[in-house]
UniProtKB/TrEMBL annotation:
Official protein name in the record: CGGC domain-containing protein
Origin organism lineage: Bacteria, Bacillati, Bacillota, Clostridia, Lachnospirales
Protein's organism: Blautia acetigignens
Domain CGGC: 3-115
SMART domains: CGGC
Length: 117
């Protein structure tokens, strides 16, 4: 049994119900096609928001640090990052990039993708 998580953008909550991410996981399609049926979606987490709304950088944000520690304690092996990580010109949000680096530094694999756009 493998445990995985999904990371999304805090501000995507305004328009996204996570239906695409969850549907792809439950149907084991797109970026989740490789997982066995007994794989558990153990975590859904968001970033810490844009700098204008939250001046704390991810590596100093107590909430993000607590979330990442929880991923480790729950033995999550992989975190998929939603398409909402992309901003203007289809570039990855720098905060999401930093959070992905922080996740990887804890020994958790990061896969950029959940479902097809």
């Amino acid at each position: 049994m493998e445990k995985i998580g999904i990371l999304t953008c805090l501000h995507s909550n305004d328009v996204c119900a996570r239906v695409g991410c969850l549907s792809s996981f439950w149907r084991r399609k797109d970026f989740f096609a490789k997982y066995a049926e007994n794989t558990i979606l153990a975590a859904m987490l968001t970033c810490n928001g844009c700098k204008g709304d939250n001046p704390s950088e991810p590596e100093e944000d107590k909430g993000i640090l607590e979330k990442l520690d929880r991923l480790v304690s729950e033995e999550v092996k992989t975190v998929h990052v939603g398409v909402c990580r992309l901003i203007e010109d289809k570039k990855e949000c720098p905060r999401m990039t930093k959070i992905c680096e922080m996740i990887e530094s804890r020994g958790i694999q990061v896969i950029r993708g959940t479902h097809r756009e």
